[in-house]
Design brief:
Elements lengths: L8 H10 L11 H12 L4 H10 L8 H8 L5 H11 L19 H17 L11 H4 L9 H14 L34 H12 L4 H12 L6 H8 L5 H11 L19 H9 L10 H4 L5 H12 L4 H15 L4 H8 L5 H12 L18 H13 L1
Length: 392
């Protein structure tokens, strides 16, 4: 059960602001961590897994995200906590270690780990921000009835404080037209978008993150759990200044928007005609070149729906990638468009790229595979995929 990916987003903001003060040890690279992860995953006894996991870290360091993945391997929260506390000394970017709180099944254990880190940081003379559970954002408390005087007082306080609030609808946003979803009656891809109050808190938290990549990853991760309207997605997209990153985020979020009938409004946020055409393509079946021979080998829509549902059951991008790797060889004959739909289920670019390479072998219309480039944020990922295809 996932508890705090954005539950502690304010802690990530804190980490970003203070990261420059931290001296990092060199952590394991991706390949080394994969070997480490596989070795401890094979150990069924969780007590032995704790011991062996710590032994293998004797001469190495890991990142906070890597520790999160390792802790998530354990079923029992007691073992998760024991391992996380022991391994915390081997984390290179300790300022980010509170992301590990999300690996616990119960919030009580997440708070125990938080207290452990706070005590250790007190020794190191580092401050730790107060925990603000994200549940407070998602569940608005019942409103008590107020007297007329109290209402007037609160309205006066809001008017006084208003100039100090972040400029949510500043000059940049005023240039665009935002669709209203309140009376939307068309097809819906999710139920009930976030309330205005909840969304403003989410927006403020995301806008405080340091890099556009961090913002994008958090937004994409939470779009899997919560419903956004087109207007809310547009406001989040305006936090991203790089147009290519913004485009990738927009086409990914289309899969989980409350009012897809309003989604053409997002074209206002793109300057490139090519990217605008990409949004238009969301509403039409692209012309896919398939030979008569290839038509004999196609995954049906029913099978595709089952595949998507199986992958969606996994909550992490990494575990979704692993599930997809198991499923794809069973069906073998996928269209490029179907592979694109699966790739959109992943949050991280590394998972998207790895899966795109893996799935190429099982794609029947390989002549269309270059279309997958549009899913990547970075040019290096696009080049990497094209080089892989050339050498295949």
């Amino acid at each position: 059960m996932k508890i705090i990916q954005l539950v502690l987003i304010n802690l990530l903001i804190f980490a970003t602001a203070n990261a420059q003060n931290v001296i990092l040890q060199e952590p394991m690279n991706e390949r080394s961590f994969k070997r480490y992860y596989d070795r401890i995953q094979k150990i069924d006894d969780e007590d032995k897994r704790v011991i062996r996991g710590i032994e293998l870290l004797k001469d190495d360091f890991i990142t906070a995200n890597q520790l999160f993945l390792a802790v998530a391997l354990f079923e029992d929260d007691n073992n998760k906590l024991h391992f996380a506390e022991l391994a915390s000394e081997k984390v290179s970017d300790r300022i980010n270690i509170l992301v590990v709180c999300d690996a616990f099944g119960k919030i009580s254990y997440a708070l125990k780990f938080y207290d452990f880190i706070r005590e250790n940081r007190a020794i190191e003379n580092q401050s730790v921000p107060a925990v603000v559970p994200f549940e407070l954002f998602m569940e608005e408390p019942p409103k008590d009835k107020l007297t007329k005087e109290e209402i007037n007082k609160k309205e006066h306080e809001i008017q006084i404080k208003e100039p100090e609030l972040p400029d949510m609808l500043g000059p940049i946003e005023n240039r665009y037209s935002f669709p209203e979803h309140s009376f939307y009656t068309g097809i819906k891809k999710c139920n009930n978008p976030l309330t205005d109050n909840v969304f403003e808190k989410f927006y403020t938290s995301v806008s405080g993150l340091g890099t556009e990549r961090e913002k994008t990853e958090i937004i994409l991760e939470y779009a899997e759990k919560y419903c956004f309207s087109t207007a809310q997605i547009m406001r989040l997209a305006l936090l991203i200044t790089n147009e290519n990153i913004r485009y990738v985020m927009l086409i990914t979020l289309f899969n989980n928007v409350f009012d897809p009938g309003n989604y053409l409004f997002v074209k206002q946020l793109l300057g490139s005609n090519e990217l605008v055409a990409g949004i238009d393509n969301l509403f039409s079946e692209p012309a896919t070149l398939i030979s008569a021979e290839q038509k004999k080998c196609i995954v049906s829509n029913d099978d595709m729906n089952k595949i998507i549902a199986s992958i969606r059951k996994e909550s992490l991008s990494t575990t979704r990638f692993e599930m997809a790797q198991k499923i794809i060889p069973e069906y073998k004959c996928f269209l490029t468009e179907q592979i694109i739909e699966i790739i959109k289920l992943f949050s991280f670019e590394t998972d998207k790229l790895s899966f795109a390479k893996f799935a190429y072998e099982f794609t029947s219309d390989k002549n269309n595979y270059n279309r997958i480039q549009s899913l990547f944020i970075y040019q290096s990922s696009k080049d990497d995929l094209m080089n892989y295809i050339k050498e295949f």
